[in-house]
Amino acid sequence: MKLRSLEIIILEKSKGGIFMYVNTKDILEKASKEYYAVPAFNINNMEFFHAILEGAIEKRAPLIIETSEGAIKYAGNGDIHKGAKYFVELVRLFADSVDIPIALHLDHGKHFEYIIAAIKAGYSSVMIDASEEPFEENMKKTKEIVKIAHAAGVSVEAELGQLAGIEDNVSAAENVLVDPEQAKIFVEETGVDFLAPAIGTSHGAFKFKGEAKLDFERLQKVKKLTGIPLVLHGASSVLPEYVKLAEEYGADLGGAKGVPEEELKKCVQFGINKVNTDTDLRIAFIAGMRKFLKENPKEFDPRHYLGAGKKLVKEVVMNRLEFLGCAGKA
Ligand code: G3H
Ligand code: 13P
Ligand code: ZN
């Protein structure tokens, strides 16, 4: 029997309307036009993926799955090409039999070899994160990746400013937040498809000492001057009910604080279309798993204790899809 190329199979399936593995750009440009946001959920393994997928199907929402460089290395057991391929195969396998659009994105690509591995494996989009470099260098690196990625039909995200959060001393943080005028030049020069402007968030579970403080004015300016889909990193809400549950069963998350849902809604109103979410899923998972293990000391079937974590991840996912406005948009 003659073997057909994978590209031909994908093309035939997409013509038949059943293959829903899409370019991230398509999902985000629609979101930008219609003023809603799509959460991009980080995964490291199968359980989180299943939870997110189930949630998105139930909410009839477009889906963006993303993996960090660390996730790729982990999934490939040290081999980054195998790791990238693992995630593409996993996501495509399920995209084949659902009717919501699904994209797979490389989050925080800092090393050329990971970005190339993701493009070669078939990711829908990649992030080139040269945000710690001086502006000119960031622009140069981003331009280079845009050229390679676009030639392969892969869209590109870049970042401007740094995710340091805004502490009490606002002026000290000013220099790490995005400069809207620079953002305009950056987007025009690089041809990047979506941009992550630093407006005061930070990664992880401990984002703010006091109240959450985001620079909405700056965000609005960036949207006005660039006109492209914008991305919010460090966007987890660190929901108190899941933190409390995790702590009830032994976790130590004292001082955890995220971006409240109301603040995220404002971000969407002012131009954010992709809301990166990792920490919220991690906390929900650990809360579910800790509770299960404590209550079921005789259990050792991984499907049961991982399943308990999965259940809470799905809850968090469904809530996010709803309040960010993308439920029903698939
Ligand atoms: O932005 C970073 C993501 O939360 C992934 O973090 O490098 O621990 O996978 P990671
Ligand atoms: P959180 O740590 O707030 O979930 O942010 C995740 C993120 O920005 C991934 O790129
Ligand atoms: Zn991030």
UniProtKB/TrEMBL annotation:
Gene Ontology biological process: fructose 1,6-bisphosphate metabolic process; glycolytic process
Sites where the protein binds dihydroxyacetone phosphate: 204, 234-236, 276-279
Sample GO molecular function, one term: fructose-bisphosphate aldolase activity
Highest taxon listed in the record's lineage: Bacteria
UniProt cofactor(s): Zn(2+)
Cofactor note: Binds 2 Zn(2+) ions per subunit. One is catalytic and the other provides a structural contribution.
Keywords: Lyase, Metal-binding, Zinc
Binding sites annotated in the UniProt record for Zn(2+) 2: 129, 159
Gene3D superfamilies: Aldolase class I
Protein name per UniProt: Fructose-1,6-bisphosphate aldolase, class II
Organism: Fervidobacterium nodosum (strain ATCC 35602 / DSM 5306 / Rt17-B1)
